[in-house]
Specification:
62% of the residues lie in helices and 3% in strands. It is mainly α. Among the domains are: 1-136, no CATH class; 138-216, Ribonuclease Inhibitor (Leucine-rich repeat, LRR (right-handed beta-alpha superhelix), Alpha-Beta Horseshoe), CATH 3.80.10. A four-stranded mixed β-sheet has the order 1-2-3-4. The chain is elongated, with a radius of gyration of 33 Å. The chain starts with 10 loop residues before the first helix and ends with a helix.
């Protein structure tokens, strides 16, 4: 034995070199290559060197050097087995392809399939399915490599089982489980108390598993159910179903401010203004921002108007104005001007209500609600020309106003007007 081939009899040194090659650090890899150059070629390092020659992308020079060392160390049989597999990174970027690739390579007796897969995951960021299903390392260690700050993406890995060790990573806020094969989820997922987003599309979870998830993460499911009906609510359709879903949302998360507001809207438009009042008070209770708190007051005022409770209506409109005064100019958006316009409308200050609506339209000229509210205001002012113009535009932007206008008391004096009827029919 000479100084140049001392690694043959130094297992401790070989193990240190393995750790350097598995570290993921460029300077450690460079040090490992220096030790190999000075200590001789040992076949025990052949898996590491092949993995670097295939999966390492940070430095082409180091990759070429790994390939050279691999050629010198590999047996004739192994080299023949792998010589056409040098440029696979792009081809096998797909997770399923990587699994097939690792399975084929791992079948050769001179390769350590666990090391090969672990280094594929480390350097190519692929092979998670193979690693988890073949237990190439502890599930905790594998998952740790898959986490990006507060996100764990397991989409389309075709996993048959979801590792319970995910529950150990309590920093996870975003969990993606789409496109897998498992039907159940481990109870340990309940430990992800900071989770904000969860997706599981195209993963065949059973009803029991979904119920577990709903129990673990009620606020996430409340948001998912809410998103199922928000379009119907905005379009003014399927109110009965929307109410059922909103009730489920609020059972899961009683502090869901926007859901309280939309339940009030649905009840109000379903001719249940008294029931809507409580929803708007709950919206005020849980609303985080002043714009939303003001909106709760003007929506309540709408319900009070339908009930004919004029004294309470004026009081509620003034509450909205008091909240709006606290909002800095730089934070005044479309919702601010919508709320301001309605509050002024209920206080019979029609000129300033129109100005508020115009400022809202400056933020969004395609906002049908603001065009409709301007039409209501012009109707109150006795200005049919402007009223017809704005009502026509509102209907063009939102079909629902075709029906609402024919029932809205603000237009009562025009219900039999030929021009009004023409707009309702043809706009």
């Amino acid at each position: 034995m000479t100084h140049q081939n001392y690694l043959e009899k130094n297992q401790e040194a070989i193990e240190q070199i393995k750790k350097l090659l598995e570290s993921g650090e460029k300077h450690n890899i460079e040090l490992a290559f220096q030790l190999i150059k000075g200590g001789g070629m040992v076949t025990e390092l052949v898996t590491h060197l092949y993995a670097l020659s295939i999966f390492y992308t940070d430095d082409d020079a180091l990759k070429r050097r790994a390939k050279l060392y691999y050629k010198n160390m590999a047996s004739a049989d192994l080299y023949e087995f792998t010589k056409y597999k040098w440029n696979v990174y792009g081809e096998y970027y797909n997770e399923n392809k990587m699994t097939e690739f690792l399975t084929k390579l791992g079948a050769h007796p001179e390769f350590d399939h666990k090391i090969l897969a672990n280094m594929a995951l480390l350097y190519a960021h692929k092979g998670a399915k193979y690693c988890l299903e073949n237990k190439t390392a502890s599930p905790q260690k594998i998952i740790a490599q898959l986490i990006d700050q507060d996100m764990l993406d397991l989409d389309y890995l075709n996993l048959d089982t979801l590792p319970k060790e995910i529950g150990l990573f309590k920093q996870i806020k975003f969990l993606y489980l789409e496109g897998n094969n498992f039907t159940d989820i481990p109870d340990e997922l309940a430990q992800l108390t900071q989770l904000q987003s969860l997706s599981y599309k195209n993963t065949p979870l059973t009803d029991k598993a979904l119920q577990k998830l709903e129990t673990f993460f009620p606020k996430i499911f409340a948001t998912q159910y809410y998103m199922e009906v928000i379009d119907d609510i905005n379009q003014g359709i399927n109110y009965e179903n929307s109410l059922q879903v909103l009730d489920k949302v609020l059972q899961l998360d009683a502090t869901y401010a926007t859901a309280w507001n939309d339940k009030g809207r649905v009840l109000q438009e379903s001719k249940q203004p008294e029931a809507a009042l409580e929803c708007y008070d709950q919206y005020l209770k849980y609303a985080e921002y002043d714009n939303d708190r003001a909106l709760s007051r003007v929506n309540k005022a709408l319900a009070l108007q339908n009930l004919g409770w004029h004294e309470e209506l004026t009081k509620t409109a003034q509450e909205a104005m008091d909240i709006l005064k606290q909002i800095p100019v730089g934070s005044r958006d479309r919702v601010y001007y919508f709320s301001q316009g309605l509050a002024l409308f209920f206080m019979n200050d029609y000129n300033n209500a129109l100005k508020a609506y115009d400022q809202g339209l400056a933020h969004d000229q395609y906002d049908g609600v603001l065009w409709y509210n301007k039409a209501c205001t012009y109707a109150k002012q006795g200005n049919p020309t402007a009223m017809f113009q704005h009502l026509e535009r509102a209907i063009q932007l939102r079909e629902r106003f075709r029906i609402e206008a024919s029932e809205d008391l603000d237009f009562k004096e025009y219900w039999a007007d030929e021009d009004f009827l023409k707009i309702i029919k043809e706009a």
